[in-house]
Amino acid sequence: MTAALTFALAACSGAPTVPVPRTVTPTVTPDKSAPPTPQVAPTWPLTGVAGEPVQRPALAVKIENTAQARPQSGLEQADVVWETIVEFQVSRFVAVFHSQEPQEVGPVRSVRPMDPLIIAPLHGLLAYSGGQQGILDLVAASGVQLFSHDAGADGLYRVSRRAAPHNVYGSPATFWADADADHQASPPQQFAFAREAERATAVRTGTAATTLSFRLSSASSPSWAWDASSGTWLRSEGSTPAMAASGARLSAVNVVSVTAPHPDTTFHAQGGNRVPTYELVGSGDAVIATGGKTVQVRWQKDAEDAPLQLFTADGSPATLAPGNTWVELVPAGSGSLTVG
Q1: So where are the chain's domains?
Q2: Using CA atoms, how far apart are residues 319 and 328, in angstroms rounded to an integer?
Q3: Engineered SS bond to 330: which of 19, 23, 265, 335, CB 3.0-4.6 Å?
Q4: Which tens digit of pLDDT belongs to each residue from 90-112?
Q5: Is-above-0.85 flag for pTM?
Q6: Topology classification of domain 59-339
């Protein structure tokens, strides 16, 4: 009777029944779609500056740099300027245009043996006034489209405001309009660029500097002074500020010093002087100046039609700041750079 009473009390108490726990595994359908592609803003290939690049080839122009040629037209709008030493120890420029279109460039002068090493990687256009046949053959084999004043190309003309031979000028608009079907593409990137100036290699790891004093030859000693207000290096020819015909001071966001052998060739100039060139296929020492700092790097160029690249000591690509670049080709053994 006691057991029956206990059962009755339990039944009347209304105590809840505890359910037995069980684990439920969720059903997950795997997403096999490709991850989204990161959105990277486009940049101009020769400057690294953000923007929508115009579809047109790089235009290289041989520009004189004697006292009779200054101030030159168009240099302040070049993406890249290469300074080379030719015969008689004078310097001559290879100015490369892509992101900007100057109305006029010049004075335009003749080609030299080192030009194919500079222009072949661009696979673009080259405007010049003429040259020796053997050197013309080298340039013709570089794969670029040629515009020669001596050959009567459109867009090259003489001006009356200067005496010959310092009076050949050119029209970039005409050269670009006359680009053939094989030379329509924009140039490939030549140097590596940081997305922002503060991430450039020299800015991150370099040593503070205010002046860059070059001795390229007995007749050429350009210098650059850091100008924090504009964020650029300001160029001088010796101690004289270098100006463009427009009145603008010549300046560069990046100045790259490349030391390379500078041997004579078998080509002759006036008076029996030999025409020199540079040995740029290989590697050597270089210095990058960006943002008021300099850093030592190595340059490497694997073939005539390969771009000249810059690397840090650990083999990583050295980056420049977005903007224009001047490359100073320093003859090994006789040229120098003094950083102040």
Answers
A1: 59-339
A2: 17
A3: 335
A4: 999 999 999 999 999 999 999 99
A5: yes
A6: YerB-like fold (3.50.90)
